[in-house]
Amino acid sequence: MHTRKILSIITSSAILLGTLSGCSLFDYLEKSNVTSALLKYLTAVQEADYNESSELVVDGEDAFLLNEMSDTEAELIAAIQDASEYEIGEIDVSGSSATAQVIFTLPDIESIADEGYSYDEFIAAIADIEDTVDETIEFELVKEDDKWFIEADSTEGLCDYLTELIADLTFGRLTEENALETVDTFITLLSEGDITGANNLLTPNDNIFVSYIAMANLMPGLSDVLTTYSNRLTYTSEVTEITDDYIIVEVTGTAPDIQSAINTVLDNEEIMVPLYADYIDGTLDGQDENLLFFSMAGTLMTSVNGVLDTAQMSPVSFIFKVTENEDGELRLDLTGGPEINIDMDDLSSRTEYIIPAITQLLSDGRISFDQVLELQQMYGV
Question: What is the pLDDT of residues 12-31, one digit of tens each?
Fold first, then answer.
């Protein structure tokens, strides 16, 4: 605590006037010893050193030590006390027993309780609270072997008061710091190939990455693309808007040009002809066209991933909308960013691949000449 004001019942003027008898001098010394014991105890509690504070309590049964507070509770209480002041008030000594009042002036933490601070922000804000509250706690002490110890029961008053003070505190998750951290976690999970973990950070809204990640679960090739892309992404994050309901985080940097990598693969005959051949062969065998599509797209993305690893870098920008759900968890909605463009209508009409694919199937003995005629009519080639 910053200020410790010790109010002595016997003043220096009384000493100067010679009013101290032998008995009153003894009383004065005992009150000084009681004050010293209290100061040591309160200092140890303020520093959250409950092992030391318990040494100043009868039988070591300090309420702060026995309460088994969490690290969070202990840190909160220490921060509150560090921003507090106290005065040692009236002290009464009767033989080997004493009572002492301590008047605490504490920051009014209720004045910032509804600010929506995160835990770290709340701890930092305590020192700047201007409003204060006063609370008087009475301590009982006992003298043992010429030393004063605080009675165990009387330590409960201060402990109970402080723990009740913080009992109902809640800390908001939707903060600038946490929003930036959540976006960074999302990108890190993608770079580690944890597609499911990244997906769990997204809102269920219809956004760009939700559809990508849904497809990635069906085609490992796309999962690899997202991992490679995120690994090569270099970026900085900035909060550009803060409201009560959401925080906007903009991510800017450089990343491999994913569309350029896709176009490189789509224009590569050595890659595309075998893909077309497998797709056409599958349709002739009556396989589900959707499954064939995902198989073809997955193989396509595997090739894209190979190109992406050395693709040229280009500027990128992502816009994340960060919200807090009913469970107090932060979720992301990607409202802006580069999109992957694969024109399936264009792919289905690229005769420069369809004709060589049919020829390859015939050459490999995978289809008959009659099927060639059927495919020519089907694809108009």
Answer: 222 333 334 444 666 788 89
The count of domains in the chain is 2
Question: Last residue of some domain: 145, 167, 189?
Answer: 167
What's the mean pLDDT in 249-257?
95
Tell whether 160 and 86 lie within a shared domain.
yes
Both 127 and 198 in one domain: the answer is: no
For residues 261 and 304, the answer to whether their CB atoms sit within 8 Å is yes
Which residues are within 8 A (CB) of 327 and not within 5 positions of it... i.e. 6 or more apart? none
Query: Which residue would you say has higher pLDDT here, 315 or 69?
Result: 315
Do residues 25 and 153 share a domain? yes
What 3-state class would DSSP assign to 149? strand
For 35, 96, 253, the CA distances from 10, given in Å and listed in that order, are 13, 19, 70
Q: What does the block give as tokens for 264? A: 């490189």
- Partnered with residue 133 across adjacent β-strands are 106
Sign of the four-CA dihedral 271, 341, 319, 118: negative
Q: Which residues pair with 139 in a beta bridge?
A: 100
Q: What pLDDT is recorded for position 346?
A: 64
Residue in the block written with tokens 């990244």: 198
Which domain-ending residue is among 167, 187, 205? 167
Domain hosting residue 29, numbered range: 3-167
C-alpha span between 347 and 101 (Å, rounded): 85
Give whole-number Cα distances, 329 to 174, 182, 320, 332, in Å: 9, 10, 15, 10
162 and 182 housed in the same domain: no
pTM metric for this prediction: 0.59
**Alpha-carbon distance 42 to 85, whole Å?**
11
State the Cα–Cα distance between residues 110 and 125, nearest whole angstrom: 12
Joined together, the tokens standing for residue 67 give: 């309460």
133-178: pLDDT as tens digits:
999 999 999 999 889 999 999 999 999 999 999 988 888 788 888 8
